[in-house]
Every structure is written in structure tokens, then in C-alpha cells.
Design goal:
Distance between the termini: 26 Å
Strand order of the largest sheet: 3-2-1-4-5-7-6
Strand content: 25-35%
Number of strands: 7
Structural class: alpha/beta
Radius of gyration: 16 Å
Number of helices: 6
Helix content: 25-40%
Amino acid sequence: IGQNVKILELGCGEGRDAMLLLRRGYNLTATDISPEAMAVAKKNITSQKLSGRVSCVKADALAQPPAFMGKFDLIVSNPPYITTEEMEQLPDSVKNFEPHLALCGGEDGLEFYHNIAKNYRNALKNGGCLCFEFGDEQGDDVCAILEANGYTILERAKDYNDRERAVIARYDRKEEE
């Protein structure tokens, strides 16, 4: 992708992925619903001297995007994907130190995928792409959600442990929209 693309990160958390994109020379809008997470992200981005190419905006991945944000070439998100049942079984080392908001993806772990695929497609430029990270064994479900919302799957990717963990899909707006 070119350097002049507009990138939106939904759920930036502490800013890890935002900093990776910024270090590669991209400009982006980083969002999160948590004011605490946004404060940490801003501090981390500033400490790395990367704040000149980022806008930090409070936004809810489960709702319609704020209109003032405009349209993007690429939306990236590693949304919460742990099921309600799995949340109960998490080790204390995770349960006691990670925010519930950053982990729980609803009853089936797919609540954010449904909402982002539907609500944020209008924040994509025609032909823009949505890139999701997802949990083990969720690839088929996430791709089905994307396809049901008018996206074309471009690539499914594996992590270093050879587990499928990400997808990138393109949204081509229909003429009547």
C-alpha cells in the first residue's frame, strides 16, 4: 500500500499496532472507546516521537462511526474475540490484568466482527479494505460475516505458529448505495 493511504485502526488499545504502522511511514487515525486506553496509546506514541502522523479519536467499534472521521482506504482491527464462556476460564494472570472490554467478544466471540463489518463499511472508500485479526478457529466465521456484508475476501493469513489469524477483505460499494 502507498504512503498516502488513509488508515483507521479500531480499538488501538495501548497503541502497539498504531506504532508499527507509524514506524512504516503511514498516517492514521487511532480509535478506542476507552479513555484510559487512548491516554496510554497517546503516551506511547508520543514517547516514540511518532505523534506527528496520528490522530487519536474516541470511537465505538460497535456503533456507527462518527461522520467527521471521513472515509478510509484501510481499516485495521484486532477486536475482542474471546467468548463469554472462555472469559470465565481465563487464567488469573490474564483476567486480573487485562481489561474485560479488550477481551470479551460477546456470547460467540464475534460481536465486534458483525458490527464493524456492517457499521464501518460506509467509512471505507469504494474498493477500500478491512483487515481483521481473529482467534483460533474463527476464520471461517469471520470470513462468512465479511461476505454477508458485501466484502470480497482477498487473503487469509497465518501467524508464526502456522495458525490462521487474519483476513483482509475489499468492499466494493454497489451503485445504488
